[in-house]
Amino acid sequence: MARASGLSEHVRAHGADGPQPSITPALRKRMLTSLMGQVFLSVLGVGIVGPVLPLYARSFGVSAALAGSLVTIFGLARLMSNLPAGRLADRIGRRPLLVGGMGLISINALLSGLAPTFAPLLAFRFLQGVGSAMQTTGALIALSDISTPQDRGRIMSLYMGSLLLGASMGPTVGGLVGEQWGYRAPFFAYAALALLGTLWAWFMAPETMHAANGARDARRRDNGLRATVTMLGRLVRDGRFVAVCFVSMVIFVARAGARSTVLPLFGDSVGLGPGQIGVVLTVMAAINLVIVRPAGILTDRFGRKAVIVPSAMLSAVALALFPLSYDYATFIAAAALWGLGTAFVGPAPAAYVADIAPEGQSGVTMGLFKTFGDVGVTLGPLIMGGLSDQMGYAAAFRANAVLFVLAGLLFAVLARETVGRTSRRGPAEGAQASQGTPTASS
């Protein structure tokens, strides 16, 4: 903690304009390491409780719909908490959110495992979602603090690689734990992992708020709710920001709706067994994990648009191929293509948002960006599931493919490239950027 405080004092004493000489490579590495470790523990815990969550709910004698509400309430809590968490990060710093968010998860995961009835379990899951929003929002803002447009894609890809690793391991561990020790045991494991993540952030994570452009003056400039509402209005009028948020929302609609909801049902309808469907999902996850680092390098080298637009189109092609996949080989091929498309688009949207965030307002900007993603998570299963029920699985896949095409085209038209432009900005544009006012997209 002393070292973390020392970093803040060092930056305040010398000033900062992004991760310049006041933030040494060693300190940047320390923060990145702390965030990678924390997100791995956090997502591993989420994955561990995933397989037993509906089974644990049903053990209280509730309906399938109420069992599903444990997932919905978690997403709803994140949706409601992203913006407040972002604003809080701009007022008190990133580190309190990293420590406090994981601490809140740990306490409520433990209480979930001890829940006597379903009603308190639902409340504990809501508070876990609040903690998750605090931790993930704080982490994304800290990543933008310690990165520059020249290396932001690579830094985001390292963070996402840790996230994907935890996500791929969690369900397997959770299934084994639940099978051996009962449905409550995974929640105790989740609580222990979250506690470890809390301690990891406490001892490892430095404060980076004062390393952001002008963020040392953010508290003075923040005039409360009116200032936040004004900034939100500027963001939603910025074509670049709207375009990248739409890309993020479509990605999460695909993950929660097409991949997690429609794909298993469609696989079952064409005669694939649970094991085969599991292999399909594993192939996608493995490709995501292998490609995410090269994707970050390409994002920095060739630009955000050069990665986001082709990746969106590739994902659309993969989704359109699934209805044509009536044998296992073509099913695997479509899944591999989709894994490739989603891996390349992974780090780029968050990097782009960090590039265009107004000075001293990265918290509100990232909070709103994450809100769009959580809208996709919340609505994706409902939209894709409803389309499947009314018009068939093929229609659901094709609708999601159309969304990817629209997102890619919208981003191509409205979003201006940020990599390679910042160093060549004219005086007028540079002055406007320093004032934190989003410019119109060209």
Based on secondary structure, the structural category is: mainly alpha
| Weakly predicted, low-confidence segments | 1-21, 213-223, 422-442
Number of helices: 18
Quaternary structure type: single chain
Helix content: over 70%
> Total strand count, please?
0
Order of helices and strands: HHHHHHHHHHHHHHHHHH
**Rg over C-alpha atoms, rounded to the nearest angstrom:** 21 Å
Ends apart, CA distance between termini: 45 Å
Chain-wise SSE layout:
Layout: H1 2-14, H2 25-49, H3 53-58, H4 64-92, H5 95-113, H6 118-146, H7 152-181, H8 185-204, H9 218-221, H10 225-236, H11 239-269, H12 274-302, H13 304-321, H14 328-345, H15 348-356, H16 362-391, H17 393-414, H18 427-434
Helix pairs in contact: 2-6, 2-7, 2-8, 4-6, 4-16, 5-6, 5-8, 6-15, 6-16, 7-12, 11-15, 11-16, 11-17, 12-13, 12-14, 13-14, 13-15, 13-17, 16-17
